[in-house]
Design a protein that fits this description.
Elements lengths: L19 H15 L4 H8 L3 H8 L7 H10 L4 H14 L11
């Protein structure tokens, strides 16, 4: 009985990283709003439906590389620029947590 295992770990666990689709969605919305464009305009240039772009921005969907390239192009960005900006957002910790809306 000399070896006792504590019930709770003594070290603080590292905070969970946000999902990539969450960071990407926020970055897509920020890029679109900085250009003062509507969903329908960016979606039209990218060849996707406004509903799909909205789902991406709300982190409900995760795009394929083809759709990501089309949307980045519609925002006049390269995929590399968009992913770099998204990575910086993750590193900076500027991802919002879950949102609870009350009625």
């Amino acid at each position: 009985m000399g070896d006792v295992v504590p019930l709770r770990p003594t070290s603080t666990p590292a905070p969970a990283e946000p999902l990539w689709r969450q960071a990407l969605g926020e970055q897509l919305r920020e890029e679109r709003l900085e250009r003062a464009e509507r969903l329908v305009d960016v979606a039209g240039r990218a060849g996707v439906s406004p509903q799909y772009l909205s789902e991406l921005e709300r982190s409900l969907k995760e795009p394929s590389s083809e759709f990501l390239a089309a949307i980045a192009g519609a925002l006049e960005l390269s995929v590399a620029d968009l992913t770099q900006r998204t990575s910086l957002r993750v590193r900076a910790g500027s991802i919002r947590g879950p949102v609870c809306l009350a009625a």
